[in-house]
Amino acid sequence: MITAIPMKDQHIANHFSRADEMLFIDEQGQVKGRFANPALTEGCEGKQQLVSMILANGADRVIVRNIGQQLLSKLLSQQLSVFHAKNGRTAIEYFASGHLADCEPFTEASQGRPSINNIAKKANGGCCNHEHDHQHAHGEEDCHNQSDSGVHKRCCESKSELANETATMKRCCNKKHPLIAH
User: Fold this and answer.
1) Contact 8, 40 (CB under 8 A)
2) What is the model's pTM?
3) What's residue 44's pLDDT?
4) Residue 126: left if φ>0, alpha if ψ -120 to 50, beta else—which one?
5) Rounded to whole angstroms, how far apart are CA atoms 81 and 167?
6) 68-71 contacts at long range (C-beta below 8 A, 24 or more positions apart)
7) Are 170 and 125 in contact (CB under 8 A)?
8) Rounded Cα distance, 29 and 121, in Å
9) How far apart are CA 142 and CA 133, in angstroms?
10) At a CB cut-off of 8 Å and minimum separation 6, what does 33 contact?
């Protein structure tokens, strides 16, 4: 069994996505890997890279102190066991044990912390800054998709979110675009 532990200095990081690095240990407490945290510099994409790194290193479970609901949801959707460590000063070797008596299992995204940043991003129109170019399968080279109804939406918005919107202005790619049917 491989356990992933977010580290800051020589202790468990207080916030999962703000850890300096991710430590991977086996059931004997032996270090199997130690990697820089891509979420520190890459925003939304970095958090996805962090989840991918955890999976690529064969982790079965993740130890956290504090974690946001969205990232917790991503970990749980990958069938990873997530445990809340109550004390950031716990010896790393303790987490090699098969049974973690002092850790609370996180089984639902609601056990994570609501993200103030995510709430603000949704209020401003979506999940990412769109500082990079988007290329869509249908040939558009901007950050919009057009649904069957002709309503434009950001590439990171779901159709269900868009269905609830009316003719309003949203921020996208640092420009305002009306969300109305043509």
Assistant:
1) no
2) 0.65
3) 81
4) left
5) 42
6) 68/16, 68/17, 68/112, 68/113, 68/114, 68/115, 68/118, 69/109, 69/110, 69/112, 69/113, 69/114, 69/115, 69/118, 70/109, 70/112, 70/115, 70/118, 71/16, 71/17, 71/47, 71/112
7) yes
8) 39
9) 7
10) 23, 24, 57
The span from the CA of 138 to the CA of 53, in Å, is: 30
The tokens describing 109, both together, are: 């995204």
Helix (H) or strand (E) holding 103: strand 103-106
For the record, the structure tokens of 165 come out as 């919107």
CA 47 centroid distance within chain: 4
Please identify which residue in the block is written with the tokens 């003719």. Answer: 167
The pLDDT, as a whole number, for residue 114 is 87
Cβ within 8 Å of residue 168, ≥6 positions away: 178, 179
pLDDT < 70 stretches in the chain: 117-120, 122, 125-182
Please give the pLDDT value at position 4. 96
